[in-house]
Amino acid sequence: MASLQKRYAIVGTGGRAIFFYTAIAKDYAATSCVVGLCDTNNTRMKYANSKLESMGHAAAPTFAASEFDRMVAETKPDEVIVTTIDRTHNIYIVRAMELGCNVITEKPMTIDVPRTLEIFNAVERTGKQVRVTFNYRYAPHNTKVAELLRSGAIGQVTSVHFEWMLNTNHGADYFRRWHRDKRNSGGLLVHKSTHHFDLVNFWLKTRPSTVYAQGDLRFYGRENAERRGVPASAMYTRAHNSEAAAKDPFALHMANNEQLKTMYLDAEHEDAYYRDQSVFSDGISIEDTMNLLVRYRNGAVLTYSLTAYAPWEGFRVSFNGTGGRLEMEVVENSYVNSGGDQAAEGSIESRTLLLRPLLGKPQEIEIPAGVGAHGGGDTVLLNDLFGEKPETDEYMRAASHVDGALSILTGIAANKSIATGQVINVDDILKI
């Protein structure tokens, strides 16, 4: 390994980890290397090493979750990449900093206020840094919106309407796996919407003040299926070896996908984690239909909705300002996490950006082309993380632990609002 390579250890080798370790091995071998893998599941670590070796990277030493400290001591990483389930992010973020490492963490940074405070205290105590990988900030269309708003193209922003649709391929996937339990993920308002709330914070350069929310499980889950007349004979717990699942368009058949089979089906004997649970089974504690009203410190108001069973994938966002209106629609190609080609994740089918100046003619704004997944955001983010000399970023897209906290606070406040029926003052939850 070259002496100038930065050393990375990865904890959590599931679907999202592939994004990081394949980029390091394939595109950033001159600047970076993977020196250790840590997980609760040895089968998945073996798969990660097979992927690394297929791209010419040496296999990395593997460590059980209980051996995290030993991994850091023996492999001496400069940074630890955290891609475990959401509820354990704080454990590894805090411990990595205590052991002298900076941290790159997948979103959401964590899922509640106590865990957030643990991270803030560790940053203050150790002086180490936490980066949250908000790839949507880096997508060219989202960066273009930031550029237009900051140029004053529509004056002062007074209100935002933001509608996000997850379709019955991608959206359903959150209801098959560990995300379906709110104790693991904080629900979609924390796990998924953290992207969207971060974008609003980033676009408007502000932070949330008050949140009111409503949310329900209206489509997925056994009770909803029964209400729609799905017969009991069609109900099943998981898809594998289920005759009922053979006729279910929502079923995930891992045996038919080499990557899913190797990472999850063949790994079940170690941890009994079932990646292919029925989206119409019991045990789902997250919402699939969510609506928010958020006021920001700068006075702007956001109306937001997230639907996890839409017939198309993507979003519409509109900004009203004292000097006009900005409208964007982005249609994304859907995907199943770990289900195939990474470059297809969140790739763009179409996107339009329309500027409507007050008392002027509408103008369609040209959006720079993006290369790679998530509308081109992944490529730019990875270069920012692992590139030899990252360019100075005038948009300041790199997200810190403070950005990570501000994005999840909207979702945490929304969860509390749903539970209580009250408007939630964000500073009453956590004042940053």
Features:
nine-stranded mixed sheet; 33% helix; 432 residues; six-stranded parallel sheet
Helix-strand makeup class: alpha/beta
What is the number of helices? 16
Distance N terminus to C terminus? Answer: 41 Å
Percent helix? 25-40%
E-strand count: 15
Radius of gyration: 22 Å
Order of strands in the sheet with most strands: 14-13-12-11-7-10-9-8-15
- Mean pLDDT equals 94
What shape does the CA trace take?
A: globular
Largest sheet: 9 strands, mixed
Unreliable spans: none
Question: What portion of residues belong to β-strands?
Answer: 15-25%
What do you see in this structure?
The protein is of the alpha/beta class and 432 residues long. The chain is 33% helix and 22% strand. The strands form two sheets. A nine-stranded mixed sheet has the order 14-13-12-11-7-10-9-8-15. A six-stranded parallel sheet has the order 3-2-1-4-5-6, with helices on both faces. The two termini are 41 Å apart. The mean pLDDT is 94.
